[in-house]
């Protein structure tokens, strides 16, 4: 059995759907989640079978929604490393800190995971054109995988999206549209576009399969830590597919009996002070978030005024005794520079935000010195070189 | 035995040196190469022992010059993937084409290999400050690993060096100097600087250990192809450490008996028409190259007017029945766009130059359709986004 794909289930109500046709969201307006035949998988699939397989996210194909290898659109994704940052670790007094470095994936961000699985599944469903709203990096990833699959893509992003992913997306030949406002306005444009053209919308949580790619971070993490989950996982959060994906992965691994039943890491959602809808909801004890007006942060990937899965994310935080916490742009800038100056590692601002969060949460005692903490670096610092300010100095001037 | 390190030998004359002190080049002015105790390694080390080890270049530590793991400065380098480019493959009629994608290494280029081993060995030798001349990417890599090792670094690059690696290097806190001219002028500055300060010069071939890092491409390649070397290896070439390193790796693997004795891939050196000293020497049957005046190309990593190892590179080409071949900047630009438009892969210009070379060499019959070809993508396309030209178009204008 290449995949244990079973059906789709609403994340909120009790509706279920078959997998044979394209689906977007549930009729009730909530995201759909992919379900697998766990009983069969439990019988037929063991951890030991992984040893023989190639590194990378597709090694977990039984828990991915593509039912035949012919539809796999892969760009040889590596298993992303768990990095140590020895000096940052010391500086923060978090001795057991690891950073899962997603920058080594194709197109330089964790968005490649969702794009690889999402495009593969779209190909299996006969899709010829995809459309999505993005802050930039998802666009670059989906456009690249779409090319690989021979599909057209329409990518809508805010005019304020960073220059690098914009250029990357254009370079693939995708149809790129720039919209005033945030990703929310780009989303409205895409919704209208798919109504008019019949393109398949693949914006975060608008279809069920991107999440399945994202969850492979959780599988890799568990395997890399010898099937022991860490105490804390810290994710810089915009749409929240990463958090939801990792949690789903851990639930599935528990149900296979590959990791300890009922033990979850504290799931920590880091947002920017300029765009912190989940933090605001968490702090006021709400079950859903409110649209965050005038959202603004230098960590563009986290500039999502309201996640479609906000209720689900807040429930994950509650269930795992996690937290939602906001850091300032100044903290992000400072931490990004700390990381490269202390450990030579060039994080993206979102990854730096997560580490700035680790620092603060250690200071207030939420994170203990004895805890194994995994912080996610979602992408390459190279995507944001424009934020680096260096005075040009010639040898002549200097000597 | 963590390392089989034995001694240093000149690449040209018959002088040898011990490894206990810092060394730069041989007294005769040629690069020094690291030698290992192959007899002991052959007795004590088998291919099977690799299975248990972590992925990445340090898994071959017996053939690296660092004699104790305490000195290893690593940033969790992954084993770089061998990518397929199905549509480019078809388009060029090179069915067995693979691209070794070095962009997933720390700082986004193959320079990380040399920097990781070079800095580790420098640390073991008690070095406190390194200095090097670079077209940009080596600077970014060495500065990052130097930070990790607690060393200072002086990085000299041409004022025309690309913006991204310049910014990356500055960001680490390195002392960056910009010089008029090419890497040759930067080299003169560095030579003077080390005389005055006692810093350790680590420019290409100026010390023996960078090459040892570079050669791990060859080890990985052989292991990934189940210890069968390909028919052709295509390397975009500036200083040439990559070509020399891979060849050295294959000689060592042969001497261990891990790969077939005496069988080498044709080693193909690709240069840019605007800076092709090795091609000119190869075509006129010279044993060394002449300084290439007014060197200029968009593939900055290949802008090296004269390699310190030119004689060695030319002899490798001769011994393996390879070739040195030049492509134009227009070819490079076109191929880079082809790759991303056909297969969604964002190569760097140097990697695109190598593939443009594959295309031409297939056209003239030097490469046969039946041959297994490995082309090296030396770095991330993100380093060169400034070369991408996209007209900004807003949704409003377009609809």
TrEMBL record, chains A, B:
Gene3D superfamilies: 3.40.50.1100. Its cofactor is pyridoxal 5'-phosphate. It comes from the Bacteria. GO terms for biological process: isoleucine biosynthetic process; L-serine catabolic process; L-threonine catabolic process. Its EC number is 4.2.3.1. Residues 74-379 form the Tryptophan synthase beta chain-like PALP domain. GO terms for molecular function: L-serine ammonia-lyase activity; threonine deaminase activity; threonine synthase activity. Keywords: Lyase, Pyridoxal phosphate. The keyword NAD does not apply. InterPro entries: Ser/Thr_Dehydratase, TrpB-like_PALP, TrpB-like_PALP_sf. NCBIfam families: PRK08197.1. This is Threonine synthase. The gene is thrC_1.
């Amino acid at each position: 059995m290449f995949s244990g794909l079973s059906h789709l289930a609403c994340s909120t109500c009790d509706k279920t759907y078959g997998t044979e046709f394209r689906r977007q969201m549930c009729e009730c307006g909530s995201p759909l989640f992919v379900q697998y035949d766990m009983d069969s998988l439990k019988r037929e699939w063991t951890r030991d079978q992984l040893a023989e397989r190639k590194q990378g996210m597709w090694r977990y194909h039984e828990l991915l929604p593509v039912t035949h290898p012919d539809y796999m659109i892969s760009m040889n994704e590596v298993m992303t490393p768990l990095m140590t940052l020895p000096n940052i670790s010391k500086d923060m007094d978090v001795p057991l800190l690891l950073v899962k470095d997603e920058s080594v994936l194709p197109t330089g961000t964790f968005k490649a995971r969702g794009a690889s699985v999402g495009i593969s599944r779209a190909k299996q469903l006969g899709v010829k054109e995809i459309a999505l709203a993005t802050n930039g990096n998802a666009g670059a990833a989906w456009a690249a995988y779409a090319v690989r699959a021979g599909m057209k893509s329409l990518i809508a992003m805010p005019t304020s999206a960073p220059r690098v992913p914009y250029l990357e997306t254009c370079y693939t030949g995708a149809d790129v549209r720039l919209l005033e406002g945030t990703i929310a306005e780009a989303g409205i444009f895409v919704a209208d576009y798919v109504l008019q053209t019949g393109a398949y919308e693949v914006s975060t949580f608008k279809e069920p399969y991107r999440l399945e790619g994202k969850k492979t971070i959780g599988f890799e993490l568990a395997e890399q830590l010898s099937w022991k989950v860490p105490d804390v996982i810290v994710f810089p959060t915009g749409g929240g597919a990463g958090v939801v994906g990792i949690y789903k992965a851990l639930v599935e691994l528990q149900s296979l009996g590959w990791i300890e039943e009922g033990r979850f890491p504290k799931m920590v959602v880091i947002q920017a002070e300029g765009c912190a809808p989940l933090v605001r909801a968490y702090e006021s004890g709400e079950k859903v978030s409110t649209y965050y007006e005038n959202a603004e942060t230098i960590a563009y990937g986290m500039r999502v005024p309201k996640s479609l899965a906000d209720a689900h994310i807040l429930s994950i935080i509650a269930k795992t005794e996690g937290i939602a916490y906001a850091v300032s742009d100044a903290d992000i800038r400072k931490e990004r520079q700390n990381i490269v100056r202390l450990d030579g590692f060039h994080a993206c601002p979102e990854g730096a935000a997560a580490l700035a969060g680790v620092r603060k949460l250690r200071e207030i005692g939420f994170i203990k010195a004895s805890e194994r903490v995994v912080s996610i670096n979602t992408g390459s610092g190279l995507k944001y070189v424009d934020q680096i300010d260096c005075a040009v100095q010639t040898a002549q001037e200097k000597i």
